[in-house]
Amino acid sequence: MSSLMIAVIVGTILLLVLGYIRLYRHYRRNIRKVAFMFDAMDNVDYTFQFPVNKVSRDDKVLNSALNRIKRIMENARSETMEREKYYERIINSVDTGILVVDERGNVRQYNDAAMRLIGVSALTHIDQLKRISNGLYRQIRDILPGEKSQVSFSNEREECHLSLRASHTLLKGCKVRLVTISDINIELDDNEMDSWIKLIRVLTHEIMNTVTPITSLSETLFKKADGEMRDGLEVIHKTSRELIAFVENYRKFTHVPTPVPSLFYIKPFLERMVRLAEQQTTGKEIVIDRDAFPDDLILYADESLVGHVVTNLLKNAIQALDAGGKITIKAYCNESEAVIIDISDNGPMIPEDVAQHIFVPFFTTKKEGSGIGLPVSKQIMRLSGGTLMLKSDKNQGLTTFSMVFY
Is the model more confident about 249 or about 46? Predict the structure, then answer.
């Protein structure tokens, strides 16, 4: 074999080796690009961009394809996040609490209502519930899919009565329990209030149908009678008119106007309420403190109806206080963004046996009380999408009525 032939063969082999090395380096570079892209996606980093200018034709094709994959994945992630936010807004708009708990007790998801009902601002594991109530912790730990249970406990604000229901599903391949939480108090209050309204409507209707003709007839006969007959008819007429006025007063409970909500600032609103209330404190030297935090706290409700409730609560507080007593009004926003107006006084505490009935229509401990002030106030709060609660603090000697606007 001639030296020329050997040179040709060696040159060919060298060219093949160099081509293979170049191809291998190109392959390795492309593999690193793909690996870099997936690493970035795993870290949710979509800021990278592969160059498509001043590169070889093959690199341009590959880089363009990788950039396209990145855009598709980025758009898919954005759409997924938008859907999650949408579903989260829906979940947070319901009054029923929702907890998603995995087999290890980790809380994978929850809504605002659950945190409000339990009385915490955040929850990552059900073990944290032990600090609130061991009974609540055990119920949520042990409740099985398809079961229902109830639990009662006390927190810093009130006595809570909750209804629990569980179901199961899969979340990212992991078996989880979906625990829904409902406030029994609200359900019971609503049912009780509806029953009272129906009863009062029936009673007032029947009483009015019976008494109105008596009033009319006694007035007609009174004009024609004389002597003892005239005096007796006058008594009948006066009594029947007083009874009609009495019934009309209770009709107010069943005819609370539909709220017409609007936005208004709470601080100047409370200033007006206090100025009106101070007219009733003459001679008692009662101090009324008020505070709203923040100063620009806004409430979306019917200002007139809310004013009616505040006026009634302030009136009751003033009547309960002796000279030198103190009333404190505090408006604020809690962790669940509910607006709360607390009206507290340091007068005599309400006995427990009385406190159980103060929102019952016609119940009163006052000699001249009608027994509809607090029930009407609670009905207004109910129609306003909120509630009215009594809280007694024996340690500080404070009686507080809380108006909560969810």
Answer: 46
Structure tokens, 395 = 């340690």
Cβ neighbors of 66 (< 8 A, separation 6 or more) are 33, 34, 37, 50
Residues 181 and 114: beta-carbon distance below 8 Å:
yes
Crossing angle of helices 373-383 and 303-320, rounded to 10°: 150
E strand spans, 267-385: 287-292, 298-301, 326-333, 339-345
- Of 157, 41, 128, 68, the closest CA to residue 404 belongs to 157
SS3 at position 258: coil
Residue 134: Cβ within 10 Å count:
11
Retrieve residue 302's tokens.
């019917």
Report the chain's mean pLDDT, rounded to a whole number.
81
Pairwise CA distance, residues 265 & 248, whole Å: 34
* Whether the Cβ atoms of residue 257 and residue 300 lie closer than 8 Å to each other: no
* Residues of the chain above pLDDT 70, percent: 81
pLDDT at 189: 61
Cis check: omega of the bond before 294, within 30 degrees of 0: yes
- CA gap 341, 387 in Å, rounded: 11
Name 331's Cβ contacts closer than 8 Å, sequence gap at least 6: 266, 267, 270, 290, 291, 292, 293, 297, 339, 340, 341, 342
Q: Is the pLDDT assigned to residue 369 strictly greater than 80?
A: no
